Each structure stands twice: as structure tokens, then as C-alpha cells.
TrEMBL record:
Source organism superkingdom: Bacteria
Cellular component annotations (GO), alphabetically ordered: periplasmic space
Pfam family membership, one: Alginate_lyase
Keywords, alphabetical: Lyase, Signal
Name used for this protein in its record: Alginate lyase domain-containing protein
Family matches, as SUPFAM superfamilies: Chondroitin AC/alginate lyase
Molecular function in Gene Ontology: lyase activity
InterPro entries: Alginate_lyase_dom (IPR008397), Chondroitin_lyas (IPR008929)
The species this protein was found in: Streptomyces smaragdinus
Domain Alginate lyase: 129-257, 306-352
Length: 419
């Protein structure tokens, strides 16, 4: 059940070659044939072939991975007026290494990421380069300085011309973190900037289709739930960028199964729901999976007694998935508002300093949550009119929310009070 922490640094190694592009093309063609076939549509929740064809015909809204043009235009207006917290959040982003015009990508062919921070190749570099591409894309949108768009393209092209695979134990999680940021960056650049050529875009699409999507669609039901949620975050963003309706629907289905198995509500019964497709069934097995917690209350997370950092990953990924689906006309927020609302306030209160009672994790909690709540607070409060007072306090306390250097970046800037 182990996975990497926020700040573990890994090494790098890589190569390039014409052969991998041929392999990518073969895999891409096979993947396209699979996801459009009627058998695949049925197996992956697409329903009948007729229904799958109807779903495939629905256009996606672009840009629509986490951010929309309307949201970013609202931020531009706030920046022009010098409004807060956006002005301070923009200044923090602009001052970061990710916004530097001197930023240089460090792509590798095989990103090799083992468990527990053991030496690997390219893990930190890939995650940071993906965040840099997204940061440069945001800088381009807010400043209209094409040099930032070109820098984003430069970073994305470097990776699409190099990477072949992800390997070792943490491949799924690594691919999830970096894939989430790649999809956001690519979506924004492709639909707001004219300088990314069609061949370059096609090569990047092939990269996401072959080196990322298969990894993030792999099921890990018995691992800690932040894995499934982070992987689904990447999968839904990649699906939108690829205009892949079956992949989008698979991500939505996976989300609907995992969120109720990660965040507890009393309506679930005396024990939490088991992760779909896994081997954990009995109350004793679930108790062990929930890090030996034996009292379940609204908002408790599967990894609460592990540490709040990993719960924060899950909260952020849940919000990202629901937000991207919302932009595409699927309201996952309403389906899960009670769980997300309870989880936000439950953890935010302790993160802000409330003392843990003896029944919660034996009275010992590790409150190391990152900048993970802005997207959810914005939707619940500003779109749904729901109160999340502790989470609102935490959001304000953390502002301007920066980046966790994994897959969360600049969400005060993009989502604070931005319905």
C-alpha cells in the first residue's frame, strides 16, 4: 500500500529513437480500434453499441480540463483590476521556477519510479516538467506573451519526442501525477494558441495515448485509494484532450465506485464500503485497510490515520475529476457533495489545529495536508451554496496556494471565488 511522498527526488536517464514512434503508432491504432468497438463499449460501461456511438458523438468542451476559458478570463479581469487573492497568487506563480523563461525540460525514455523514494530515473523531472508546461500555459493566457506559449510547447515536445514508458512499482502513481498536469497544459495551449503545429499535437496525443493512458486506467483496488483517484484525475483529463468519449466514461465509472469507498458517510452502514473489484470484504479486512481505525464518522477518509497528506491527494484528485466532468456536462459534484463536504470540514478542522480525540487514530494524527481544497470549496460554496466553514478557513489560511510539485498547482489563482 505504499506510495511516494510529496518531496522525494528521483534521478533520470533516457534515450530517443525512431523505433518507438512505430511502436506508438501500432499501439495507438490498436487502442483506437479497441475503444470504438461494440464489445469494448459494453465491457467498459458504454452500454449497447448504439448508445456507445451516441456517446462518442457528443463533443467535448475545449478548453475544459480543470480550467475553462470563462474561468481564466475572469482571472484576467481580476488581475487587471489588482484584486486579491488573485494578484498575490499570480505573483507567486510568476516568481516560481516553473514560470522562468530559462526553464529546461529533462525528458527520459523510461521513467523508472520505485516505492519509498528509492533511486529511480526521471520521476521528479517528469512531474516538474509537466507542472512547468502547465504554468507556462497559464502565464501565456494571462499575459498574452507568446514566449510563454512557446516554452510550454518546447517542454511538451521534448517529452513527446523522448518518453517510451513508465516502469517499476510506482509507475501508476507517477503517470497519474504527471499525466494530470500534461493534460491541463496541452488542453490550454492547443485551444488558445495557434503556434503548436498539427504534427506536434499529434505526437503529444500519441504520447498520452500510449505512455500514459494505459497506466492510469490500470485498476489497483486494494491499494490506498489516493492511487485510484489520482489515476482517474489523469485519465479523465487525457480523455478530454484526446476527445475519447469511451475513456471519459470509464473514468467517470471508476470515480463513482472509488469515492464512496474512500470517504465515509454513516449511511454506508457500520463499516465503510469496500473498493470495487478488490479482495477486501470483511469488517476486519476493511479495518486494517483503514489503518486500524474502528470508529467511522462522516467525512473520515480511508487514509486519515495514515496521514493527512495522502487524504489531501485524494481530496484534490476528487475535486479535479468532478470539476473536469462538470465542464463536460456531467455533474459528479452533486452525486458526491455530502461526502466531499463532510471530508473537507472534517480534515480542515484538524489541519487548522483542532486536537484529535482518543478514538481518532489513537489520538495521533499527522496534519500535513497540501494546497488541496480550493477547487472543492469554490464549487460547493459558490455554485451549490453549501457551507464548508472549516475548509473555507483552511483555503484562506493557505492562500496563495502554490504547488505540491506533484499534480496540484496555482488553484487559488484559477479557482478561488470563480464559479
Amino acid at each position: 500500500m505504499a506510495d511516494m511522498g510529496r518531496s522525494r527526488s528521483i534521478g533520470r536517464h533516457g534515450k530517443d529513437g525512431r523505433g518507438k514512434r512505430v511502436r506508438w503508432l501500432v499501439v495507438a491504432l490498436a487502442a483506437a480500434a479497441t475503444v470504438t468497438g461494440s464489445l469494448a463499449a459494453t465491457l467498459h460501461g458504454g452500454g449497447t453499441p448504439a448508445r456507445a456511438r451516441a456517446q462518442a458523438g457528443r463533443p467535448f468542451h475545449h478548453p475544459g480540463v480543470l480550467d475553462t476559458r470563462a474561468q481564466l478570463d475572469a482571472v484576467r479581469r481580476h488581475l487587471a483590476a489588482g484584486d486579491e487573492p488573485w494578484t498575490e497568487a499570480y505573483a507567486a506563480m510568476r516568481a516560481s521556477k516553473y514560470a522562468s523563461m530559462g526553464y529546461t525540460a529533462k525528458p527520459v525514455a523510461d521513467v523508472k519510479c520505485p516505492f519509498d523514494g528509492k533511486p529511480g530515473r526521471g520521476c521528479t523531472e517528469e512531474r516538474e516538467d509537466a507542472i512547468a508546461a502547465y504554468t507556462q500555459a497559464l502565464m501565456w493566457y494571462f499575459t498574452r506573451d507568446e514566449a510563454h506559449a512557446e516554452k510550454a510547447v518546447q517542454i511538451m515536445d521534448a517529452w513527446s519526442g523522448t518518453i517510451e514508458r513508465h516502469s517499476d512499482d510506482n509507475a501508476g502513481l507517477q503517470t497519474a501525477w504527471s499525466g494530470s498536469s500534461w493534460a491541463r497544459a496541452a488542453e490550454l495551449v492547443r485551444y488558445t494558441y495557434q503556434g503548436w503545429s498539427r504534427p506536434q499535437v499529434r505526437r503529444f496525443r500519441t504520447m498520452l495515448r500510449t505512455a500514459y493512458l494505459p497506466e492510469v486506467e490500470h485498476a489497483w483496488p486494494d491499494r490506498n485509494g489516493n492511487w485510484d483517484l489520482a489515476m482517474t484525475d489523469a485519465a479523465i483529463g487525457i480523455a478530454v484532450f484526446l476527445d475519447d468519449r469511451p475513456a471519459f466514461d470509464r473514468a467517470v465509472k471508476r470515480f463513482r465506485g472509488r469515492v464512496p469507498a474512500y470517504f465515509y458517510l454513516a449511511s454506508d452502514g457500520p463499516v465503510p464500503q469496500a473498493p470495487p473489484g478488490g479482495t477486501l470484504k470483511t469488517p476486519a479486512q476493511l479495518r486494517t485497510y483503514w489503518f486500524d481505525q474502528n470508529r467511522y464518522v462522516d467525512g473520515l477518509g480511508q487514509e486519515t490515520c495514515r496521514n493527512f497528506m495522502h487524504v489531501g491527494y485524494a481530496l484534490a484528485a476528487t475535486a479535479h475529476i468532478a470539476e473536469t466532468a462538470w465542464h463536460q456536462g456531467v455533474d459528479l459534484w452533486s452525486e458526491n457533495s455530502d461526502r466531499v463536504r463532510a471530508a473537507l470540514d472534517f480534515h480542515a478542522g484538524y489541519q487548522l489545529g483542532d486536537k484529535a480525540p482518543p478514538w481518532l487514530c489513537g489520538g495521533r494524527i499527522e496534519t500535513n495536508m497540501g494546497p488541496d481544497v480550493e477547487v472543492a470549496v469554490n464549487h460547493l460554496r459558490n455554485r451549490m451554496g453549501l457551507k464548508v466553514p472549516e475548509a473555507e478557513r483552511l483555503a484562506v489560511h493557505q492562500r496563495p496556494a502554490g504547488t505540491d510539485d506533484l499534480f496540484v498547482a496555482w488553484e487559488t489563482l484559477t479557482h478561488a471565488d470563480n464559479p
